[in-house]
Write a structure and sequence with these properties.
alpha+beta, two-stranded antiparallel sheet, 1 helix, elongated, binds zinc ion
Length: 81
C-alpha cells in the first residue's frame, strides 16, 4: 500500500444544494422567566408567526432569539481537485 500526502489549501462554504436548503429554525422568547419556544420548524415564516402569536397572548413578551440549525457546509480544495 502506498499513500501520497501533500499540503493542500481547503475552502469551506455554504452548501447551496436543495437538500441543504432545509435549515431548521427555533424562536425562543426572551421575556424574563418565560422560556417558551416555538417548535423546530423548516419555515422561518412559521417561526415568526409563532412569535407574533406569542406576543398576542403575552403582550409584554416582545423579544425573541432565533436559532438556526442544520446549516450545511461543503469543503473543496482550492485548486479544484
Ligand atoms: Zn414569552
Amino acid at each position: 500500500m502506498r499513500s501520497v500526502i501533500r499540503r493542500a489549501m481547503w475552502l469551506i462554504a455554504r452548501d447551496d444544494s436543495p437538500v441543504a436548503a432545509q435549515e431548521l429554525h427555533v424562536f425562543a422568547c426572551l421575556a424574563e422567566e418565560c422560556g417558551k419556544q416555538s417548535e423546530t420548524l423548516i419555515s422561518l415564516e412559521d417561526c415568526q408567526d409563532w412569535a407574533i402569536r406569542h406576543s398576542g397572548l403575552n403582550p409584554g413578551h416582545r423579544a425573541f432569539t432565533q436559532t438556526t440549525m442544520d446549516k450545511h457546509w461543503t469543503t473543496s480544495l482550492v485548486d479544484g481537485s
